[in-house]
Design brief:
InterPro entries: Ergot_Alk_Oxidoreductase (IPR051604), NAD(P)-bd_dom (IPR016040), NAD(P)-bd_dom_sf (IPR036291). This is NAD(P)H-binding protein. Pfam families: NAD_binding_10. The protein is an alpha/beta fold and 287 residues long. The chain has a domain of 160 residues: 3-Layer(aba) Sandwich (Rossmann fold). It contains twelve helices and eleven strands. The strands form three sheets. The protein has a seven-stranded parallel β-sheet, sandwiched between helices. A two-stranded parallel sheet has the order 7-11. The chain has a two-stranded antiparallel ribbon with strand order 8-10.
């Protein structure tokens, strides 16, 4: 595959301070690609709720990585339209595994949520596009929703005996950078996962082995889980979405190993053990 050769090529990363966005920014800059990190707290102001920030963030960019806002209706189609009008010629969209599968995120999910609205817009944009569909991130254990449970010694989730092939956010970023800077990825949708499935308890055991930090996995029923979230002050509707998001793990749908990393990069995805080793070396989970 060939690198984008023109000296005036530049990339804007929408969501450039998030889990995947900041990794994409770092990798692009390591390669010498002119890159702007666009977000509410980034160096380039961008706010999904303030459309006056969109055009300045996109101006002059030849490619864009988009971390969408998970809201309905999705604002991604409008951003895609703005990006194309601004001269962006290559779009890489972060979507999610299972977004086109009715029932994947609960009985009420019909396969046409906000992520699909964004995918449809990107596919119809008229420019080169690539879509990334990762499963659950390994980084949820060290910088995401599982972190408090890991450090408190008890992680209670409505995931039963389910498992997930947790994908490393560094792999997601590597695929995104390849799609942004190389030929051969246009028109492709990459399903992304790690190389093997782990149950929550198995993942916690790996963390304990590397760090000595012991955390017990406590499987709870869905209603008990919901009640616990509401008791913490989380609105019922938001709590229900959170419970639905765990369903793919509970039903083992997240356990399937996808081939997107290998297709895009020609190598196997990073293992959960690699993630834990590097996260621990970086000081994750230190008390």
């Amino acid at each position: 595959m060939t690198q984008m050769a023109s000296a005036d090529e530049s990339v804007v990363v929408i969501g450039g301070t998030g889990k995947t966005g900041r990794r994409v920014v770092a990798r692009l800059r390591e390669q010498g690609v002119e890159t702007r990190a666009a977000s509410r707290s980034g160096e380039t102001p961008f706010d999904w709720a303030d459309r006056s920030t969109w055009r300045p963030a996109l101006a002059g960019a030849s490619a864009a990585y988009i971390v969408p806002l998970d809201a309905s209706p999705s604002p991604t189609p409008a951003l895609v339209e703005e990006a194309v009008a601004s001269g962006v010629r290559r779009l890489v969209l972060l979507s999610a595994r299972g977004v086109d599968v009715p029932g994947y995120f609960g009985a009420s999910y019909d396969g046409n949520g906000p992520h699909m609205e964004g995918e449809t817009a990107v596919r119809a944009s008229g420019v080169d596009w690539t879509i990334l569909r990762p499963g659950w991130f390994a980084q949820n254990f060290d910088e995401g929703v599982f972190l408090d449970g890991v450090t408190s010694g008890e992680l209670a989730l409505a995931t039963g005996d389910g498992a997930a092939a947790f994908v490393d956010a560094d792999d997601i970023a590597a695929v995104a950078v390849a799609a942004l800077t190389e030929d051969g990825h246009a028109g492709r949708t990459y399903e992304l996962s790690g190389p093997r499935a782990l149950g929550i308890g198995e993942a916690l055991a790996e963390i304990e082995k590397a760090t000595g930090i012991r955390s017990a996995y406590v499987p709870v029923g869905e209603q008990e889980f919901l009640a616990g979230l509401v008791a913490q002050g989380i609105p019922e509707a938001e709590a229900a979405l959170w419970a639905d998001a765990l369903k793919p793990i509970r039903t083992h749908r997240e356990a399937a190993v996808a081939d997107g990393v290998r297709r895009a990069l020609g190598r196997e995805p990073r293992d959960f053990t690699d993630f834990v080793r590097d996260a621990a070396a970086g000081g994750a989970w230190q008390r």
